[in-house]
Specification:
The structure is a single chain. The protein is α/β, with parallel strands linked by helices. A hairpin with a 2-residue loop joins β6 and β7. Strands 1, 2, 3, 4, 5, 6 and 7 form a 7-stranded mixed sheet that branches. α1 crosses α2 and α3 packs across α5.
């Protein structure tokens, strides 16, 4: 796992207020743009009735790090790049069993496994949300979201 720090000039980088421990895991096809990743995060947060300010990090696999880095910059959060071994390890916690994801990544939902792998002790808010070429799963630390 590799964590890219938040961008200079963001509220997090400036130390203004603690971030909640809410992670967005992103699974996507190669053609997905950074804007599509940002839109998927916004849609997932709206779906769960959450304010996007609670987002603490974006998690992606190594093959999507370029788009993820740009999306994380737009969102003002660090990017966590999850290696394949960590993805597989977290895969047992997936709620979704997508045959496409199983064939491509070895886990039922890449987005769900990525969100779970990004921070110890996280739980999924629910199954991943599909937004065109992007899937987004929300995971959080604590008893309640």
């Amino acid at each position: 796992m590799f964590i890219h720090p938040p961008q200079t000039g963001t509220a997090e980088a400036a130390g203004r207020g603690p971030r909640a421990d809410v992670i967005a895991g992103i699974g996507c096809r190669a053609e997905a743009s950074p804007a599509a990743l940002v839109q998927a995060v916004a849609s997932a947060f709206a779906h769960h009735g959450l304010r996007q300010e609670r987002l603490s990090a974006l998690a992606v696999p190594p093959g999507r790090a370029d788009a993820g880095r740009l999306a994380a910059r737009l969102l003002g959060v660090p990017l966590v790049v999850i290696d394949h071994a960590s993805l597989i390890e977290a895969g047992s916690g997936c709620l979704t069993r997508s045959h496409y994801s199983l064939a491509a990544t070895g886990v039922g939902s890449a987005a769900e496994a990525l969100a779970l792998a990004a921070m110890p002790g996280t739980r999924l808010a629910g199954p991943r949300l599909v937004c065109g070429p992007v899937t987004c799963a929300i995971a959080f630390v604590g008893a309640e979201l």
